[in-house]
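Student: Hello, beginner here. Can you help me understand the protein record under this note? Any guidance would be welcome.
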Amino acid sequence: MSMDRHPDLAHFEVIANDTFARLPAEFRDMTRDVVIRVEDFPANEVLRALNIASRYDLLGLYHGVDLTRQSVLDVSPLPEMIFLYRRPILAYWETHDDDLDAVIAHVLIHEIGHHFGLSDDDMERIESEAAH
C-alpha cells in the first residue's frame, strides 16, 4: 500500500479516541487528564534522549510522571501526554499480520500502561477487554 493511501493524522486520532472509548470505564476515568497526541514521527530530541537511532523504532511515548511516582504535592508544568507516531506505526503494520486498528490500540494501551506503572500482563488483559 502506498503511503498516500494510509490513514492521515486525523484518522489516527479517530482510531485512538475510539480505542480509548472501548477501555474499561474505571481505566478511562483514571486517565481522563492524559492528552493523546498523534504525530508523524518523534522529535529528534526525543530520539536522542532515548538513544534511539531510527525514527521508525519508536511507535509511541508516554510523557509525564507515572502514577506510581506521583505525589499529591507534585505540580506538573505540562499535562501528562501520550504520543502515537503514525509513520512508525504504519511501517510496523505493513510488516505484520495485525489489523491497523489493533496495532494502534496496542501502542495506545501500552503507553497508558506506563502512566499507571502497569505490568505487561496487566496491559495484555486491558487490551483484551478493549477488543471485545
Notes: Residues 9 and 67 are 28 Å apart (CA to CA).
